[in-house]
Design brief:
837 residues, alpha+beta, Beta Polymerase, domain 2, Four Helix Bundle (Hemerythrin (Met), subunit A), 9-stranded antiparallel β-sheet, 4-stranded mixed β-sheet, 19 strands, 12% strand
Length: 837
């Protein structure tokens, strides 16, 4: 084919359209249709010339689909192909589209099979494009199949109208809800062309109206209103066509630089008012008329569309509530107890279920007997509910409120209203569970993608979100039954899923998530995540990246659903670190190196970094030679360099202190000085009195008896108002502080909570591991530190975790001889802790 021939043909068309408009702008309606028709003919010749496969279908969408093409409007195309044939047609279609651009056409295009269309139909803009699509060439059956798919979609309900109304509302907000901007946008501003198109889309969707004149016949418009609408649209079309001529490109903003010339093109002349003022006044009056008519029509459409809508033979929507069509719906078809909540999810805009329908549900609730969840129809409806892209949380909340959820899942009835007397949860078990579902659903909603970026990123690649929701629904299902609720819950969900005919792999995934739902939180907050053995063992437990991703999402949702102030950036960073390290281990299968090899690797990396930082190599080697092996295992290279930079500076001070915001979003406070008895006790006491929350502690002593102590605290506004380094230095130079009396931090909460103390041997470090769980009170940590001070117990490392109103701290300790505590020493320590805490 001759590119030059088609290019000249298109140039002649554009020139003739512009010339005809300049002669008579009143011809604009004919010209926008003429350009569309001529482009049809042009595309037909090019399509035939490329001998495109007959199985494909070329479709016009957008303004081109409406046959409304202004002088420089885009040519929006959809190319429909048979299912799963993208690769087969990619080369020929690429050449075809490239040729169109070379001709001079500004083409917007998408290539989709029917499966692609179905996958994207939930996008309102995609549904709108398909609504006004027009077949140009090719396989008619593909086009008809696409149109049928559109009619059968979930948008074939009130949601399309609600979506369009919301879309218009948001668009108007972008222009301050006024048509009177000095540089208005012809399409998007209130009273612009998009307001007219919104009316047309809704009318076409619900009333099969293609012409505005049909709205007169249906009683939505008076003849006078119809005439005003046509006149206003014609005026806006003239302005847009003229704007394209003046700007010499596609443009919708009537900028100051174009206004005078547009006025001239449209025949305005200076008089009592200058031409441009006359033109802009006419524009604002037309936009106002469009806005008024838009208000009238959308309100009339709302009354017709929203107030009564037939869903099926059993249910309708009336004035925003789902209603049964007769009193025998639930008795004749008990599956309607589940179906009604599926409809709530599908039509998420409804206010709820009507009062009379609720009465009938409550009256016949006994029909949901102990075998109700074994019915295949009920199973299908419930799983379909969980698979909805919207409204799932709302539907499950209503199922719980109206007693259907506990009927369908009998075990759920045992946790309904069950209080969790554990200082950790702020809600009953059923409410906590529904909050978990809410949190999980948010990961799949694009509006919340910035809230938890990693969670949203993972969620986008999950093919079966319903499996994750089932794990959330059952994770605490066995609370209050005695025994390990995670193990019991796994058994309950396995039986439930077997009756629902889930595949073995899916059952294994969900039951595994329920059984292990506490594991990731426990490991991240209680174990050393820099220890590859810890990561390796966790990786062996989760077995796959697939399971790890599900478990991570469930863990985040679970913690966030316990109590509003429980989640913080520290917990977030720990979970992310565990996730990334475990994912890497699962993908690369790295064997944990020996301790000596790891230390050697750290020292080799340090040697190069010290030179890059410009530090005195001899001085640094001298400092490093005094440090024990544990130092290189507990600290990252960045931390060590931070310490060395502080120590490289000349100072007469016996205590040196530095602070910084770490990668884990906590403030690290590094304290260096002589390792005097009770140093940690005094340090913790100072920080506690300042009201700061300690989350981590690393306590090390060098061979020359210098303390390398790092205390990590949550970020706090207080830190910006005080010089914490100076405060700590002053306190540490004073005489040893007295122990602070342990007092209730939350006096309004009264719980009987026995202190839990557990000892174990940490083989890697050859230390005693002490776990202390008790109610969170003022001075708990400083009192524990004081007990260590009294009993000559040395603290090497600590993980401090507050879970609601309970602290769960882990300490790695030794006796005065740097050995693990003996049984007698453990007994004495337990006694002191019980007496003082």
């Amino acid at each position: 084919m001759q590119l030059k021939t088609f290019r000249n043909r298109y140039k002649v068309l554009q020139a003739s359209l512009a010339e005809d408009f300049l002669k008579n702008p009143d011809l604009v309606a004919d010209l926008v249709q003429k350009r569309s028709d001529e482009i049809d003919a042009l595309l037909n010749d090019i399509w035939q010339g490329f001998e495109i496969n007959e199985a494909l279908c070329l479709v016009a969408v957008g303004g081109y689909g409406r046959r409304e093409l202004h002088l420089h409007s885009d040519i929006d195309l959809l190319i429909l192909i048979p299912d799963s044939t993208h690769d087969r047609h990619q080369q020929s279609l690429s050449k075809f589209l490239t040729f169109l651009w070379d001709v001079g056409l500004e083409v917007g295009h998408a290539t989709r099979d029917i499966a692609d269309c179905m996958a994207n139909i939930g996008d309102l803009s995609v549904a709108t494009n398909l609504l006004e699509s027009r077949r140009l060439l090719g396989q008619a059956s593909l086009f008809l199949e696409m149109k049928l798919m559109l009619k059968m979609s979930d948008w074939s309900s009130q949601s399309f109208f609600v979506g369009k109304r919301k879309e218009q509302h948001n668009r108007h907000l972008n222009y301050s809800n006024t048509a009177y901007n000095l540089e208005p946008n012809l399409k998007e501003s209130p009273g612009g062309l998009r307001d007219i198109q919104t009316v047309a889309w809704v009318a076409k969707w619900y009333f099969d109206v293609n012409l505005f004149s049909d709205l007169v016949d249906k009683g939505f418009l008076t003849q006078n209103e119809y005439d005003l609408l046509v006149q206003s649209q014609s005026f806006l079309w003239k302005v847009r066509f003229a704007l394209h001529i003046v700007a010499k490109r596609r443009e919708d903003r009537v900028a100051f630089q174009y206004q005078r010339e547009i006025a001239s093109v449209l025949g305005y002349q200076n008089g009592e008012r200058i031409a441009v003022e006359q033109f802009m006044r006419d524009y604002y009056q037309s936009a106002t008329k469009v806005a008024r008519l838009n208000d009238i029509l959308l309100q009339l459409f709302e009354q017709s569309v929203l107030h009564v809508q037939n869903l099926n033979t059993r249910f309708i929507i009336s004035h925003g509530y789902i209603c049964m069509t007769n009193d025998t719906v639930f008795t004749k078809q008990p599956s309607a107890f589940i179906e009604i909540f599926l409809l709530v999810a599908k039509h998420n805009y409804v206010r709820g279920i009507s009062a009379e329908t609720l009465r009938q549900m409550q009256k016949n609730l006994e029909l949901c007997d102990k075998n109700y969840y074994k019915n295949r129809q009920n199973n299908r409806l419930f799983i379909e509910l969980l698979q909805q892209k919207q409204g799932v949380n709302k539907a499950l909340k209503l199922m719980n409120r109206y007693g259907v959820l506990e009927r369908y899942i009998p075990a759920f009835g045992k946790i309904t209203g069950l209080m969790q007397y554990d200082l950790f949860h702020a809600y009953t078990v059923d409410q906590h569970t529904l909050f978990v579902i809410r949190n999980l659903r948010r990961f799949f909603v694009s509006d919340f993608s910035k809230e938890f970026g990693l969670c949203s990123e993972i969620a986008q690649n999950i093919a079966k979100p319903e499996l994750l929701l089932l794990a959330g629904l059952f994770h605490d299902i066995a609370k209050g039954q005695g025994g390990d609720h995670a193990i019991l819950g796994a058994e309950i969900v396995r039986e439930f899923l077997r009756y629902h005919k889930f595949k073995i792999n899916d059952i294994s995934l969900v039951s595994g998530l329920v059984e292990q739902h506490l594991l990731m939180s426990q490991i991240s907050q209680k174990q050393d995540l820099e220890d590859l053995n810890v990561i390796n063992q966790f990786a062996k437990t989760v077995k796959s990246v697939h399971f790890l991703e599900f478990l991570y999402l469930l863990t985040v949702a679970d913690i966030r659903a316990t109590k509003e102030n429980l989640w913080n950036e520290w917990k977030d960073s720990l979970l992310k670190k565990l996730f990334y390290k475990t994912k890497e281990q699962l993908q690369n299968h790295v064997e944990p190196p020996s301790l000596d090899k790891k230390i050697k690797t750290v020292k080799e990396a340090l040697a190069g970094a010290i030179e890059q930082y410009g530090l005195d190599v001899v001085q640094m080697d001298k400092i490093l030679s005094t440090l024990p092996k544990d130092y290189f295992l507990h600290y990252q290279i960045e931390d060590i360099l931070w310490h060395l930079q502080l120590l490289s500076k000349k100072s007469d001070k016996t205590i040196r202190i530095a602070q910084r915001l770490s990668e884990s979003s906590v403030v690290d406070i590094f304290v260096y000085g002589d390792d005097t008895k009770g140093l940690f006790f005094k340090l913790v006491g100072v920080i506690e009195k300042l009201g700061l929350d300690i989350v981590d502690a690393k306590i090390l002593t060098s061979k020359d008896n210098k303390a390398y102590n790092t205390i990590s605290v949550l970020q706090d506004e207080k830190l910006e108002l005080i010089d914490i380094s100076q405060i700590i230095e002053n306190k540490l130079l004073q005489a040893p502080a007295t122990v602070r009396e342990v007092s209730d931090k939350y006096a309004h909460r009264h719980f009987d909570h026995t202190i839990h103390i557990a000892f174990s041997h940490n083989e890697k470090w050859n230390l005693t591991q002490l776990e202390v769980s008790t109610i969170d009170k003022q001075g708990v940590l400083s009192n524990i530190a004081h007990i260590f001070y009294q009993l000559d117990i040395y603290l090497v490392n600590a993980r401090i975790s507050t879970m609601g109103e309970r602290v769960e701290d882990v300490f790695f300790i030794s006796n005065a001889n740097n050995k693990p505590l003996s049984k007698a020493q453990q007994k004495q320590l337990r006694q002191y802790l019980q007496e003082n805490l």
